[in-house]
Input
Amino acid sequence: MAEPEFEQARKELVSTLENSSIFEKNPEYKKALEVVSIPERIIQFRVVWENDKGECQVNKGYRVQFNSALGPYKGGLRLHPTVNLSILKFLGFEQIFKNALTGLNMGGGKGGADFDPKGKSDNEIRKFCVSFMRELCKHIGPDTDVPAGDIGVGGREIGYMFGAYRAARNQWAGVLTGKGGSWGGSLIRPEATGYGLVYYVEHMIKYASGGKESFSGKRVAISGSGNVAQYAALKVIELGGIVVSLSDSKGALIATDDKGFTPDHINNIAALKLNRKALTDLENHSFRYVEGARPWKEVEKIDVALPSATQNEVSGDEAEALIKAGAKFIAEGSNMGCTQEAIDVFEAHRKEKKGDAIWYAPGKAANAGGVAVSGLEMAQNSARLTWTSEEVDEKLKGIMKQCYENCLATAKEYVTPAEGEFPSLVAGANIAGFKKVAAAMQDQGDWW
Output
C-alpha cells in the first residue's frame, strides 16, 4: 500500500543524512536508519459508538508506537476524516527525532481515528472518546505510551479519554498530556508550541544579525488560526512584531494596514474557532479575506513566515514568492509545513545568497515546544507537583535555546557551511535527532 506522506518524511531525513558526513564518520549508522524506519508496533482497531439518533457508527482507530529507545512513546492523537496509516507513520517518524531534540526522555509515536468531530454533539464526542479509549487503554500507560492532543483533540476530548482510562484501569496516572489544570495538566501547555516557535526564531534572528535585531518591527506572516497560530501571533506582538496574516481551511485573512493584528483580534479569532466559525466574519476595513488562498502570495512585504496550519502548506512557487516578498526567516509551526520543493528552494537560496538568504527551520526543531511542555507535564505528574507558569515558561525557553544551539552546532560539524553561509538548520535538526536515537538504540542492542 502506498504511503506518500511517510515516504516524503523518510526521504527528507535520508537525503539530509546522505548529504552530510555522518555515514563517513559512522558507517554503521546506515543499519540504524533501516531499523528506525520501521515502527516497533502498530495497533489498529475498530471504534464502535452510538450517535444521538441511536444509530451504530464505526471508525478505524490507530496507535503507531514507533520508537521507545529514549523513553515512553510520546505523540498526539488526531481525530480527522483524512487520518490513515501513512499520515500517522509520517507524524510518528517525525516525532521520534523532534522528541530527541527536546533533551527529555521521550520516544516517538502517533495515533488517532478517521472520526470527524465537526458537526457532532458533545454527547457523541464523549461516546466516541469512551469507545476509542476502551481499546487504546490496553496499550498505553505513564511508562509505556503517553498520548497528547492533536488536530480534533483538545481539552474536552482529553478529559473524556482520561476519564475513560481511569474507569477502565482503576488508576489515576499521567497517561495523557494536555489535561485540565486542576487534574494534572501543566500551565503554558496550550501556548507552548506557538511560544516555542517564536523563541526558536528569536535565536535565528539574533544569530543572523549578530545580535543587533529582534522581532521588533518585523512583519510576520502566519498561516492557520488554531492554538499554534494564535499563541505564536500573541508572542510576536508581545515582542514588538507586526502580524500581517492568519488563515483557515477556506482562505487567508490579510491585514490591510501597518498595525496588523492586535491581541483583541486574536481573542476574537479564538472565540470564532471555538464556535467553529470561519475567519470571513472578521473581514472589515482593516482586513481582507482571500477565498481559497494561503497567505504566502497575498502579502507584499514579509520578514518572517510561520506556517502553522497543516502539512505541505508551502509549495515551491510559494517559497519563491516568500523570497520575493523579502522574507529572511521561515520556521514551521506545523509538522512538515513545507513541501520538499519548497525546502529545496530555501536551501538553494541559503547557499547562493549566503548572509542575505532566507533561513529555514524545520518543524521537528522549531515546533518542539509543544511536546517539550508535554514532557514537563509528565515530570510534574510523576512528582505530583504543579509548577507556576513562569517556571514552565522559563524551562520552555531553555529547551528551545538548547534545541536551536544543538541544530546549529550539529550542522556546522556534519555539513560544513561555506564562508558567510548560514548553517543548514534542517540538516542540523535531522542529524542531531537521528544521532541521539541511533546511539541509544545501539546501546540497548536494537541494532549492532
